[in-house]
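pasting for the record
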Amino acid sequence: MIYLLTFLITIFGFLVIEHSIIVPKINGLRVLMYHKIEATLPPDRFTVTTHQLEDQFKILQEKQYNCISMQDLIDYQLFQKPLAKNPFLLTFDDGYQNNFSHLYPLLLKYQFKAVVFLVADFINRSELNESGEHVYLSLEEIKQMDPAVVEFALHSFNHKSYNDLSIEEIDTDITASKQTLDALGIKYLPCHSFTYGAFPKKDAAKREQLYKILSKHNVEMAFRIGNRVNKLPLENPYLVKRIDVRGTDSLFQFKTKLRTGRSKFFG
């Protein structure tokens, strides 16, 4: 009886995800959020394997989603330039070295684009991982990647949560981020992703002040988490929602997130 129930649940899940039964695909912009990509280390919340990522890229192609760049999204938002049908945006937080060694070759292979949100103070860090490799991108690696394939944007100066900073400290943080990237000669887009996905969600007054600071620094879009598909046109360009893709996700969960923005059918 248990085996039969498991079989029926599996068939039901397949019909839901593959054939739009009960839960239709939500139209809009999917912004996928990743962090690390590893070839040999086991996956975890922040780490997907190269095998997992390639399987996900194949699904995106098979389902006829179209990868857009951050510049495409900016052009849509500011100048109403049309986006491709079924658009998705690949984002990677923090600027890990494996974004160069493992992600970049896959982007070239599948002709996808991605934006890496850089923590300015992490660039060129000497910190090593368990394999004796550098944890974060070097300036040389950043400049080796084709800007038509990998774009860069802001992710704070030293990865502090904006929930823990005053408005004045946030202003200083964005200034330091931009000055550091400018000094290193790194071209970056006027976009920012909140560290930990954190923003003053429950403090409306501080949230409005945050928007003013972002505008002061000519930031056109800012990204949270949210785990939702974004309606187009964007409801709030300073709170663009991203879908958290984890190494602990099964392919079935990835397909569910791709369809609804969440790992569950309902809720």
